[in-house]
Design goal:
There is one protein chain. 53% of the residues lie in helices and 12% in strands. By secondary structure, the protein is α/β, with parallel strands linked by helices. A six-stranded parallel β-sheet has the order 5-4-1-6-7-8, with helices on both faces.
């Protein structure tokens, strides 16, 4: 199977870096300061959407300036602020041992994800990283997920996307794949349930059981379909 992950609030908490970068950009632009909580709610959005949500009124020059300032500060602080969850490594190791293809599909830049994976000795557990620099359209567009699916050469019915947000659920739905929702982000269970997830889990410690259940159900359905074809 192909198990694809969102990054922020799914595999890791990098909210400290996002807060630092957003506050730096807004302060440099002499815009009203936002609270940490307001900024954390934008994690997973692209930078244009982040600015729109934080500030409201905008022009194209504002969006360009905010992105430039945010990314300038991100080069300095983001990787150091990425903290993988305690359950991340164990979950990835088990998935890999069971022969699954593992990808990361995120708005965060590929190089920052790769640097964090290398720093914490996780890079060999990941088959592909598709970050915000590789495909123009952000989630909920399925474009990045579609790229990961094509590259994996694994069909849709054997692919799951694991994420923590509404945009993750929408992207999985648009790509036509199963969605496993995890509650380590800022989105409540009731909101995640709106996307008909395969399962809603508290954290990644519960993921492998969800994958096994999904795989077992898939195998039964495929066997039934095969028998019906033979009878037909």
């Amino acid at each position: 199977m192909h198990i694809s992950f969102d990054f922020d609030y799914t595999l890791a908490d990098s909210s400290e870096g996002a807060v630092i970068c957003a506050k730096y950009a807004l302060r440099s632009m002499e815009k009203p300061e936002c609270s940490d909580a307001e900024i954390k709610k934008t994690i997973g959005l692209n930078l244009d959407e982040t600015y729109k949500q934080l500030v409201g009124d905008y022009c194209d020059d504002d969006l360009t300036m905010f992105s430039s300032l945010f990314l300038r500060k991100a080069d300095e602080v983001v990787v150091d602020c990425i903290k993988f969850y305690k359950s991340t490594k164990d979950s990835l190791v088990e998935l890999k041992e069971n022969g699954h293809y593992i990808s990361i599909v995120s708005t965060k830049y590929t190089k920052r994800i790769m640097e964090a994976l290398e720093r914490d000795g996780l890079v060999d557990l990941i088959d592909e990283v598709i970050g915000g620099d590789k495909v123009k359209d952000s989630k909920p567009s399925p474009d990045r997920l579609n790229m990961a699916i094509r590259n994996s050469k694994i069909d849709l019915k054997n692919t799951l996307y694991v994420g923590d947000s509404k945009s993750d659920g929408l992207a999985a739905r648009a790509a036509g794949i199963g969605f496993v929702a995890v509650l380590t982000g800022m989105t409540a269970r009731d909101d995640l349930n709106k996307f008909n997830p395969i399962e809603v889990i508290d954290d990644l410690r519960e993921l492998n059981q969800a994958v096994r259940s999904f795989r077992s159900t898939n195998e039964i359905e495929q066997a039934v379909a095969s028998d019906q074809d033979k009878l037909g």
